[in-house]
Prior knowledge:
Oligomer: single chain
Keywords: Membrane, Signal, Transmembrane, Transmembrane helix
Family: Belongs to the BLCAP family.
Signal peptide: 1-19
Shape: globular
Transmembrane segments: 20-38, 45-70
Amino acid sequence: xxxxxxxxxxxxxxxxxxxxxxxxxxxxxxxxxxxxxxxxxxxxxxxxxxxxxxxxxxxxxxxxxxxxxxxxxxxxxxxxxxxxxxxxx
Length: 89
């Protein structure tokens, strides 16, 4: 599991709010992972653990995946007291 010390921090890199910077971050992550796999050749167990972690992160919500070009979206939600539902823009 020594090789995971170079893979897990990739999941912790925060996504920028700017859409252009999100594309740069995705390219950085993809190129880093390709370079890491070609240079270090991680073991099968580490590769599977990392793949499961990425899969779980991507399935946890829209915009959470490290490979998606969708930046974090901030929604302005307010409760209209004349209606019973909450409206989000």
